[in-house]
Design goal:
The chain is of the alpha/beta class and about 325 residues long. About 30% of the residues lie in helices and about 25% in strands. The strands form two sheets. It has an eight-stranded mixed β-sheet, with helices on one face. Strands 3-2-1-4-5-6 form a six-stranded parallel β-sheet, with helices on both faces.
Length: about 325
């Protein structure tokens, strides 16, 4: 950017997700990709050659080279790697879920606050063009219904489907409802792994809102839909079709025939590029991240409640 030096950045873990992070940083006018790290030497060197940057198998070799970093390693390593970078005074964008356990998430938030570092959590749906287009339309929902279904892939199976897929919708719901959770009911089944691969959760919030959320990573087709029911209307979003439908409640005198239907076609966008751009702005200005560590912790807290419920034996009839 004119008049401003590019921010030196690094990426730790350049597998499926990390490769895209490296690509977006390399293309950003705000960043200078300075290095990548991965325990797989061949993979690290491949990405290093592709972008002509330093490559290492030990992420600590990025210390002193970068001002901020994306962490896209397996979930079980999020806490350890994030801790080391935050302790070294380096701002962190960590992929979702922010940690494998709630306790680790709390420690990450506390450490970032103590060190005065930016901690952003990679809840990509916050930057989805569909949701951003409807900001201000979705207000005080009373009932939310979500379906997030995907074919099976081995990536992400170190955690259950709640932390793998459902947490996307949990974060969106938590960001819009803004109320404490009063009750969680959940059921799930392990199909292809030793953890639940399909799950349904019913979340009741203190303000009366209820969310019914279904996620599966063993489906034959992909589906990503979310529906909001509120006092003045109904909003349905199909992420994959890039389309939303808004039904607005009519004046009482108009009756049901007065319901107004609006279809909103979403323009193509690049959620990851927008997420990284927002992170870089926070690094430069020291403004709080749009999806802060506290926001990520909130989603992790609800997800942990659901996962714990799944581990409990079903009640006898």
């Amino acid at each position: 950017m004119a008049g401003q030096e590019k921010i030196p950045v690094g990426v730790v873990g350049v597998g499926y997700a990390g490769r895209y992070h490296a690509e977006k940083y390399a293309a950003s006018p705000k960043a200078a990709l300075a290095g990548v790290a991965d325990i797989d030497r061949e993979r690290a060197e491949e990405i290093g050659r592709q972008f002509q940057v330093f490559a290492a198998t030990d992420y600590r070799e990025l210390f002193g080279r970068v001002r901020c970093v994306s962490i896209a390693v397996p979930t079980r390593m999020h806490w350890e790697v994030s801790r080391d970078f935050l302790s070294a005074g380096i701002d962190v964008l960590v992929e979702k879920p922010m940690a494998a356990t709630l306790e680790e998430g709390k420690e990450m938030v506390a450490l970032a606050r103590q060190q005065g570092r930016v901690l952003q959590v990679g809840h990509l749906e916050r930057f989805n063009p569909a949701l951003r287009r409807l900001e201000g339309v979705i207000r005080d929902p009373k009932f939310v219904e979500c379906h997030r279904l995907a074919p099976f892939v081995e990536r992400g199976t170190d955690v259950d489907v709640v932390l793998d897929l459902m947490i996307h919708d949990i974060d969106i719901i938590a960001s819009l409802v803004r109320s404490e959770v009063r009750r969680v009911d959940a059921v799930g089944v392990a199909v292809l792994t030793d953890k639940p691969d399909i799950a349904n959760a019913r979340i009741t919030f203190a303000n009366g809102c209820v969310a019914n959320v279904t996620s599966s990573r063993v489906s034959t087709k992909r589906e990503r839909k979310i529906r909001f029911f509120q006092m003045d209307g109904y909003i349905s979003i199909d992420y994959d079709q890039r389309r939303a439908e808004i039904y607005r409640k009519p004046e009482k005198s108009a009756g049901w025939l007065g319901i107004h239907r609006e279809t909103v076609e979403m323009q193509d966008g690049d959620a990851l590029a927008d997420e990284i751009d927002s992170f870089l702005d926070s690094v430069r200005t020291r403004a709080p991240a749009l999806v802060s560590g506290e926001e990520g912790l909130r989603a992790l807290e609800i997800a942990s409640m659901i996962s714990e419920r799944l581990r409990q034996p079903a009640a006898s009839p």
